[in-house]
Amino acid sequence: MEKSVSEAIAYRRSTRVYKDEQIETEKVKQCLVNASLAPTSSNLQLWEFYHVTDKAKLKHLAEACFNQSAAKTAQQLVIIVSRKDLWRKRAKVNIDFLNKVYSKEKLSERDLKHKKMATNYYKKLIPTIYTDFFGILGYIKYFVFQIVGLFKPIYRQTRQSDMRIVAHKSAGLAAQNFMISMAAIGYDTCPMEGSDTLRVKQILGLPRGAEINMVIGCGIRDGKGIYGSRFRVPFEEVYFEV
Predict the structure, then answer these.
(1) What is the edge-to-edge ordering of all strands in the sheet holding 76-82?
(2) Number of separate domains in the chain
(3) Residue in 37, 17, 7 with CA at minimum distance from that of residue 176
(4) 131-136 — which CB contacts under 8 Å span 24+ positions?
């Protein structure tokens, strides 16, 4: 029986050794469908999910992950990829979606206002934030926005590095959706920072603008795959009611 959200969160542990036992590809794929429903900045969905089941590629990817056990014993791998470079394409599909949703002839005043506001957001604001030229425009926008920010609240994350962080945050949210979904059906995962990301990109045939967010080992935990009891700093040290 599938676990509840709280049960899945409690069950999930970073599993570094997996049993030599197959997991169902379609079930993993459905967990990636759940990943695609994660919150994402401006609904741009600047992510891609690479679900690796091919044995040869699994071996090459394990080597690119320094042959750590979480990669070497994984039955499958999932690579979460951040695609900030696709912002124009994803903005356009959002505009197309808006045109489809508001396609009837006689729209209410409220619907017309919402359509115009949302369309302007993707046609004007998103290009203003994401457009850059070798990082130069980003810094110009950054300094201009800091000055405007002296007089009123304003969005300040305009540099290339800022937008990379935004894209990676969304990808991380998707990764968490995936791992909790896997835990809910009794499958285990391990998100790995340790990898040669350039080699991972080459193995997957990714373009220059793609960035590896994380490589996730997938399988069924071996008894020795959990390296110790769970430790978290006291909740009182990280919780602040304001």
Answers:
(1) 47-52, 76-82, 211-219, 188-192
(2) 1
(3) 37
(4) 132/159, 132/160, 132/163, 135/159, 135/160
Each residue of 160-210: pLDDT tens digit?
889 999 999 999 999 999 999 999 999 999 999 999 999 999 999 999 999
CATH number at residue 210: 3.40.109.10
Report DSSP state, residue 225. S
What is the H or E stretch that residue 170 is in? helix 160-184
* Any domain includes 236: no
108 lies in some domain? no
Whether residue 38 is contained in a domain is answered as yes
Q: d(Cα 129, Cα 123) in Å, to the nearest integer? A: 11
Q: Which residue bears the tokens 């919780």?
A: 239
Domain of 56? 5-84+162-226
Rounded to 5°, the CA angle 135-139-143 comes to: 175
Beta strand 211-219 pairing with 188-192: antiparallel
Q: Is residue 133 part of a domain?
A: no
pTM of the model: 0.93
pLDDT in tens, 104-120: 888 899 999 999 999 99
